[in-house]
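=== Structure Prediction Worksheet ===
Name of assembly: unnamed complex
Input type: mixed (protein and possibly other molecules)
Chain count: four
Listed entries:
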Amino acid sequence: MAHRPKLSTVAAAAGVSPATVSQVLRGTGRISEETRARVLEAARAVNYLPDGRAAAMRSGENREIGLVLHHLANPFNAELVSGVSDRLERDGYLVSVLDSRDDAERQERNLRALIANMRGGLIWVPASGTDAATLDLLAAQRLPVVTFLHRVSPDLDHVELNNARALRDAVAHLADLGHRRIAFLGGTAPRAPRTDRIAGYLAAVAERGLGAPLVWPCEDSRRGGRDAILSLRAAHPDIGAVVCNGDMVALGACLGLASRGERAGREVSIIGFDDVAEAALATPALTTLSVMPYDLGRRLAERLLARMSDPAAAPTTLRIDATLVPRDTTAPPSPRRPIRSRRT
Amino acid sequence: MAHRPKLSTVAAAAGVSPATVSQVLRGTGRISEETRARVLEAARAVNYLPDGRAAAMRSGENREIGLVLHHLANPFNAELVSGVSDRLERDGYLVSVLDSRDDAERQERNLRALIANMRGGLIWVPASGTDAATLDLLAAQRLPVVTFLHRVSPDLDHVELNNARALRDAVAHLADLGHRRIAFLGGTAPRAPRTDRIAGYLAAVAERGLGAPLVWPCEDSRRGGRDAILSLRAAHPDIGAVVCNGDMVALGACLGLASRGERAGREVSIIGFDDVAEAALATPALTTLSVMPYDLGRRLAERLLARMSDPAAAPTTLRIDATLVPRDTTAPPSPRRPIRSRRT
DNA sequence: CCCCTCTGATATATCGTTATATTAAAGCCA
DNA sequence: TGGCTTTAATATAACGATATATCAGAGGGG
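=== Predicted Assembly ===
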């Protein structure tokens, strides 16, 4: 057998017509038990797998879902992917993941290829610099889309975090511990998730009457966080607590403190954002704002399924609250007061 | 316009036949400059994107590549994905990533869906428990495949690491520093990459005439490494150095030591495997066996491209050497002798 | 002035499925 | 026995693109 088996291969092997094979495999139409068995056996024997493209083209159905995000290496995203996949695979969908690396041009390429090749639906964390042309393109394809984190259009279903509230909670936690000078650390982009967080941070600092706010930008990565905490410590030794724009930044900051012989939760209190698996595991364990990425993925998937089943419904927005998980990197500001590690 | 634009939509808009539109977009046939311009303008105006499925079906070409691996959350894999994608996107392919989570059943489902929907090629890290039926299925589809890490068939192109040699280098490095009792930490599966590493480890220990070897299994994750180093320290306090089955295990082991108030490179020397980005960044910086995952991804991609361009060629095997990168978690076994942090 | 080539466009068949229409055979009832 | 329903299978026409064949008209040469 020189080529891959197709419907007619199975038909020939079973001695029936291609139409019959299709009906057997799809479970439609009237087929006698005897031919059904013969067809199934033949399909198994030649290792037949249907060509989903042809099937999808004819039937109009499509069970492929694209998931486009920024940065696969971030464990938050890895957990999100698991949540999305588990939920959608349960309904027989195939989820393929693309990493735009937050580059609008790569994202555009990826989306074009994705749309060209799979027509089911899209879960999308838009990259910075996403332009209107990309949105027009998506709209024209009538593809069910759910955006996450960054809203790019009022016409698309959207899921986002309640960032302002989360930051308020974080600042409140630190203020309750007795901290007066609290900085916000991380990010550089002047767009929605980060600006919302900063707004929440500034509002909370003002409400509580705390010391002058300080926004200290850095790349959102472990390395960025490590370098930033060092420059921050050098420039503002009086900062006693830091809320970070993500766990990777926070863990990087912990590393930075460690390299100075200091320790998060002693000289400086640190709060992350995301609650990646590593946060509970680190030493000291990271206090962070948990959004349960796996569960979030599931909810994103369900939004998309809802959209696919009713393409005409009005666009929805879902806002998810983060909950503060106190661990060992936050403590009262008493100088030189070591804390005992709480096991996790 | 109620539906997504297709070739005939563009044709109508430009006042030409669908065949002409196809020729313009594909750059084939003879088309006057004037109609070409009109067609391109029309395609842009209606936001046309070709249906790749129909095109692929007719032309037999396919520019979709699947990448199936174990565990997206491991940064090693994230870097690998980048390398693969960058190389293949350069040639106009779409790479979609699936995570089998090392579960043979999920892998089988994923592969079936993948093969059904995309017909270009596959880069595959087979899960444990991959069975012959899966291999038969793949073989019957005549899909170009490159396996990575785990060889499952002599008929498929394969890329693997020279694990035995890498472990030998690691043990040699520790022995040269003066260590006598060295353990191997990590993994549980009794299959190829790990058994090769253990074999190399045992051989090196024997050759060097070191103290009794010790294989200490654990889950290959940060958590697994952390827990394992604690139980290992408790059971065998005389072990002075550990070679780990991956950087995640090694970094976990460092965390475990830290939670005891110890430090990798002081009480115990630790060597990882993979050289993920975090390794150089951690405090202390992790000594590890580097395989340059990004570059490795590129090489995998090139293997696959070669296979796709010549499906009849004999299957090849590529064996990649890891190089030891000494950083701060390895040092002479002198008790209580702190080492200076080497910046990276 | 007719035949031939060249150009630029269109008509048609095809890829591998599935949905629908159609047919062949069998069973039933009067 | 003849018409009518029921069952089980097949024939046929799409889906949206591309490859190939075809065609109409312009220009050129004898």
